[in-house]
Design a protein that fits this description.
By secondary structure, this protein is mainly alpha-helical. It is built from 19 helices and four strands. It has helices at residues 2-5, 14-28, 31-40, 46-68, 80-91, 96-116, 118-125, 128-149, 171-188, 194-209, 247-279, 291-308, 319-324, 330-342, 347-350, 355-369, 381-397, 400-417, 426-444, and strands at 74-76, 153-154, 162-163, 313-315. A two-stranded antiparallel sheet has the order 1-4. It has a two-stranded antiparallel sheet with strand order 2-3. Strand 2 (153-154) and strand 3 form a beta hairpin.
Length: 445
């Protein structure tokens, strides 16, 4: 194990990696319930999507483990599955088979870009202060995800967003607060696996509170349904209903493809930067360790997922929960991947864990990821302002990619104003132009 994953070198143990892998899995296991429900709205079989979700997550996470040796788990991404369902299928009127075709092409393009080192070059082009800001922004982002998932924050409080009252009518929110207190106490007492133990205890407390629900006909073990296999629609990429080639149809497909590419690219980059910063998984130059292998993992996962019948696979920010418990190597990812495969047989058991029980883990990891804020050079406006914009955009726009987008644009603007254009890498210039074009495109379409 040590020779394969360099455990001693990164200051970890097999036991610590096991806890980290389990914690990450529990923090992101909600995707096993959410993704089938989301894609099921397109007419797909939810049970088949469940199988595709678990298998594609396992495959991609194993690639991350053995190729990149990083404690980062992958699965079909939230946001990307919403775009798949509500924009491509319901909004544009495309078939889910066509949407899967776009996902497959995206994955193949990303494999080529990853092997050529282009995606790695993009990561390296992001300034150091923005990398730290990405970690902080992601911390706030996943904290607000936790708060929202548990129903602690709501827009129904008379303000834009506010805390609900902690009455029994808001039992999930109350349970999450109890879980957060338990996690804080365990962590302060330096109990190993504090976040994971907090999830388990909170789940048990949720039973008498009616939040953790055991459904009728509950079966601890059940066989998974077969996923879809190669359900693609190649004609639909460029031909109309009459079977004739159409520029308009091809153009629509290209727009769908570019949107998938853009969102996945920067969600993955943001997650890798945040996790690397939190776990100090960087080389001597401050770059993400084994970035090329990490980027290849989500590309392979996306291709596998498309072939099985699910939306784009991407790195999960919830991996920070595992890193927060001490995960530092790909061994944690191996454990997470194994649990995804185990979930195929024990899906009902894993789905018992309510979002109110995983929410405290996400909120607490937000605290752990705030530590990078002290190293940001706020006294230099050309560094501090872009970092600030990056940090506040991620939680309030509910998007990692938009945080990076606006942060880089602001970085270029402030450097130009301060006559420090020599400090802007060429790739950063290119990204700024692409991001501005994306903003203009969104405004006029």
């Amino acid at each position: 194990m040590d020779k394969l994953f360099h455990l001693k070198e990164r200051g970890t143990t097999v036991g610590r990696e096991l806890v980290a892998g389990l914690t990450t899995f529990l923090a992101m296991a909600y995707i096993l319930a959410v993704n089938p429900g989301m894609l099921g709205l397109t007419g797909m079989n939810p049970s088949a999507v469940f199988t595709a979700t678990a298998v594609s997550a396992a495959v991609a996470t194993l690639v991350m483990a053995f190729i990149a040796n990083l404690p980062v788990a992958l699965a079909p991404g939230m946001g990307l599955n919403a775009f798949f369902t509500y924009t491509v299928v319901k909004g544009m009127g495309c078939t889910w088979q066509l949407a899967l075709t776009a996902v497959l092409v995206e994955g193949i393009i990303f494999i080529l870009l990853s092997l050529c080192g282009i995606r790695e070059a993009i990561i390296k082009s992001i300034p150091d202060n923005l990398k730290k800001a990405v970690a902080v922004g992601i911390g706030l982002f996943i904290a607000i995800i936790g708060l929202a998932n548990a129903g602690i924050v709501s827009s129904q409080t008379g303000t834009i967003i506010g805390f609900v009252t902690f009455k029994m009518e808001n039992a999930a929110a109350l349970l999450a607060i109890i879980g957060l207190i338990i996690t804080i106490i365990l962590y302060t007492l330096k109990v190993p696996g504090a976040i994971l133990i907090g999830i388990v205890i909170t789940t048990l407390i949720g039973i008498p509170m009616g939040v953790t629900k055991i459904p009728e006909g509950f079966k601890a073990v059940s066989a998974p349904d077969a996923p879809y296999f190669f359900a693609f629609d190649w004609k639909g990429t460029c031909m109309g209903a009459d079977g004739v080639f159409s520029i308009a149809v091809l153009g629509k497909f290209i727009v769908i493809l570019i949107t998938f590419l853009f969102t996945d690219l920067f969600d993955t980059i943001g997650t890798l930067l945040g996790v690397a910063e939190q776990g100090n998984l960087k080389d001597k130059d401050g770059n993400v360790l084994n970035a090329k292998g990490a980027l290849l993992a989500d590309s392979v996962g996306t291709v596998v997922g498309a072939c099985l019948g699910t939306s784009t696979v991407t790195s999960y920010v919830e991996s920070s929960a595992g890193v927060g418990t001490g995960g530092r190597t790909g061994l944690a990812s191996v454990f997470t991947a194994v649990l995804f495969l185990v979930s195929l047989l024990f899906s009902q058991v894993f789905l018992l864990i309510p979002s109110a029980a995983t929410a405290p883990a996400l909120i607490f990891v937000g605290y752990l990821m705030m530590k990078s804020v002290v190293d940001i050079k706020f006294d230099d406006p050309t560094e501090g302002i872009p970092a600030f914009i990056t940090i506040i955009t991620m939680p309030f726009a509910y998007s990692i990619s938009k945080g990076i987008m606006y942060g880089i644009i602001t970085y270029v603007i402030t450097k130009i104003c301060a006559k420090k254009t020599k400090e802007i890498p060429v790739v950063t210039w290119v990204l700024a132009v692409i991001f501005l074009a994306e903003i203009i495109f969104e405004a006029v379409k």
